[in-house]
Structure formats: structure tokens, C-alpha cells
């Protein structure tokens, strides 16, 4: 083969590879994105057309409050269908269903609605699910075939959280956490509240602690050079070593009814918040020799809190929806505000009403993308100087108590009935 032909062939190979990378972009592989902090390195349009971004597809789903995860041209979501919890895989180009997998029974809860509250996780080749009744499953991402599964209540004495009345259960609302080669979940019983499994084989790597669970998803962090997993329990924050489950530090935080917001770790500061009269705190974590210490930086009382949404942090400032059961009601209630808060001090920099306490924020290209609980997608400049809205579009109405996801220059959003994909390249 002539050299010119060889070079031309390699040029086409390179173009194909780069084209595929541009098509799929950065994955959004689990709850709160690739870094588990609500951020993505993706870049998107900062100015949208007057009629809004192009809607590439809309697809019927099933009720639930989990969000999309995106990898390898597939979108995965856990939904309710016929009283069951079902994992649905969609083609990201068309919204066409590719496969479904039944995980188990789901719930109907009159204050929220039907379906799971959990978001899957994926490493591209596999999909990981944690159900309402603490079934943990691993599937082949290509065809939905079950690879391994654990029944946490049967195997580890797992227990889901009951409401204060002791009558109805919200079950588990936390999502599985993928970090390195391990899947971390809460859901065990005595001396097995926290569990780590090998993501490939499903073998138990470690278990530990005796904690009562909340609805909060754990978060990975590196503090003082130590990789750790921070769980938000009914006793407060509990951090364990990622590789062994050894206890590192605790921080007490009062509990009432439910805590669903995920802790935020930024530098050496950890931030946690919950509704139901619990409020918000920030603490500093330090290490001296083999010991760990926590120091409270500030506290604010309810309703300076997050109902179940989690803020994002950029350059030491939080951008999140603050309020409790303050939902958007057109014509009567603008809904809970988006606020900018200095993380180290708790100082409020600005506040903008109209988003609703069921909404969510993520960080894209250094800007805040907010989904209001009534469906508006709003792009906001991440600056403590003032609220600056860059773009707004409402592709869906209804109850949108979920987090949007961004991958490949596209926004994936949903309400309790439909999913939508928008082109924002």
C-alpha cells in the first residue's frame, strides 16, 4: 500500500475516533455526574435561541424521581412500570428503548408519587442499581442481562427507613456510588450499615458500622491525602476509608424525618443540610498523626436548608435551591429561591426566587444549570456578584423533581411522565 494511501486511511480512523468522542462527549455516569459533585467538563451554548434549544427527542418513561445516567450512546434510568421497579435503557440519538430489566417491587407514596427515588451508576460496560427495598444489582450495559445481585435485607440485615408515623415507608432513596473498582451502598444492618462490593464480581470487599440510614447518597472525597466515603446518617456524618471501611471521623448532626441532600466536600470543608427543622452546617476536617478532628465553621437554622436537592460549589461559593416544601405554583407561589452562599462563612451573596424546593442544580462549563421543580431549565452565571440569567427554556411541565444531566453537548431532563433530550452543542 502506498504511503499516501496509508496516511489517508489513518486520517479517516482519527476522524472517526474524534467524531465518536464528540458525539458521546463526557459521560454522566452516576448520581451527581462524573466527579460526584454535580459538575461536568462539558461545554455547552451559553446563549440559547429565543425558541429554546432544539428538542432532539421526547420519550415516555414511568414515574420515579431518579435522573438519567449517560454512557456509550445509552441513557439509563430507573422507573416504575406496573408496580415494579424497572431499569430502562434508551438510545441517546433517538430515545428508542433498547432493553428493560425488572429489579423488584416499587412503592406508591401519596406525598410524592409512585416509583423509585434512586439513580443508576455505570462504568460504560455495566449498570448498577439500588432499589427501594435495597436490592443491589449489576447488569450488562449492552443487553440488560443480570450479572450479579444482592438482597441486602436478607444477606446483611438491611433495613429501610420508616417515616415518623411508623406506618408508611419511603424505602431507600439513595443511589449506588461507583468509585474506582468498588460499589458503595448503605443498607446493611448491625455492623454492616456500609457495604463495599467489587464492581466486577459482586463480591463483598468490606462491611461495617451500625448506623440508621437516611435517604442521602454517600459521596467520595480525598481529605488530607486519604480517600474516603462520607455517609450522611441519622447520627450525622460518618467517614470511612474507601479501601477498608475503617472509621476515620464522625460529626453529629440532628435528625428528624428525612435527610436526602448529599454532603458537599470542597477542600477541607464538608457541608451538610436537611429539612424538617434540621438546618445547615459547615465544618472543617483536619488530621494530626493518626487522628482526625472536625471543627464547626457555621450553622444556620431551618428553613435555610435543602429539602432534597444538593447545591454545587465553584470557587468557594455554593449555588443551590434553599427552602422546604416551597414548590412552584404558577399564579400563586413563585417557589423556593436559588441562592449563592459563601461556603466558608455561610454569608448569603444573593437570592433569586422562582425555582421551587424540588428543583436541582448542576455545574456545566463553569455555569449553573438549574431545573425548576415545574420544568424550566435555566442557565445562570456562577458569580457571587449578582444573579445573572443567561438562558431559559421549558421543554417539560408537571412535576420535575429531578436533576438534569449533560453529556455530548446535550441536556437530558425529565418529569414524572416523559424524558427529553436537548441539543446545546
Structural account:
The chain has 425 residues and is mainly beta. The protein has one domain: Methylamine Dehydrogenase, Chain H, CATH 2.130.10.10. It has two helices and 35 strands.
**Number of β-strand runs:** 35
CATH architecture designation: 7 Propeller
Spatial strand sequence of the major β-sheet: 1-29-30-31-32
Distance between the termini: 39 Å
Stretches with pLDDT under 50, minimum 5 residues = 1-24, 162-168
CATH topology annotation: Methylamine Dehydrogenase, Chain H
The main β sheet shows up as: 5 strands, mixed
Count of separate DSSP helical elements: 2
Helix/sheet category: mainly beta
What percent strand? Answer: 35-45%
Our count of domains comes out at: 1
Shape: globular
Over the alpha carbons, how many angstroms does the gyration radius reach?
21 Å
Could you name the CATH class? Mainly Beta
